[in-house]
Amino acid sequence: MSNLETSMVLIMDVFDQYACAEGKKDTLTKEEFRKLMEKELPGILQSGKGKDDCDKLLKDLDANGDSEIDFKEFVTLVATFTFVAHERFQKVAKK
């Protein structure tokens, strides 16, 4: 597989690993989402206030209002963080 294909599979695997812990297997509950953020994106929560930020982020991502994160909503999160990180790296590289 190419690097991009491998990255896509890894994103799917991370989502599935946390989504299957409780509740529906195709969504992240509030607790599953918090655990994913703490373990997979610890720098994001460290720069904020932790649990409160995680709750706000879940609410912001929850496009359909079901209090859970589905895969489409999760990919939106990953894409947004990737975009922001890319822009920051570009600014640093220009200095």
Task: Give an overview in words.
With about 100 residues, the chain is mainly α. The chain has one domain (about 5-95): Orthogonal Bundle (Recoverin, domain 1), CATH 1.10.238. The protein has five helices and two strands; from the N terminus they run H-E-H-H-H-E-H. The protein has helices at about 5-20, 30-40, 40-45, 50-60, 70-95; strands spanning about 25-30, 70. A two-stranded antiparallel sheet has the order 1-2. Helix 1 packs across helix 2 and helix 2 (about 30-40) packs across helix 4. The protein starts with a helix and ends with a helix. The mean pLDDT is about 85.
Structural topology:
Elements: H1 3-19, E1 27-28, H2 30-40, H3 42-46, H4 51-61, E2 69-70, H5 71-94
Antiparallel strand pairs: 1-2
Binned, the helix content reads over 70%
Structural class, by secondary structure, is: mainly alpha
Mean pLDDT: 86
CATH architecture label: Orthogonal Bundle
Rg is 14 Å
Q: Which class in CATH terms?
A: Mainly Alpha
> What percentage of the residues does DSSP assign to strands (E)?
under 5%
* N-to-C span: 35 Å
**Total of helices:** 5
- Give the number of DSSP strands: 2
For CATH, the homologous superfamily is named as EF-hand
CATH topology: Recoverin, domain 1
Low-confidence stretches: none
**Shape from CA axes?**
globular
Strand order in the sheet with the most strands:
1-2
The figure for the number of domains is 1
Strand count, sense and barrel status of the largest sheet are:
2 strands, antiparallel
Q: What's the SSE pattern?
A: HEHHHEH
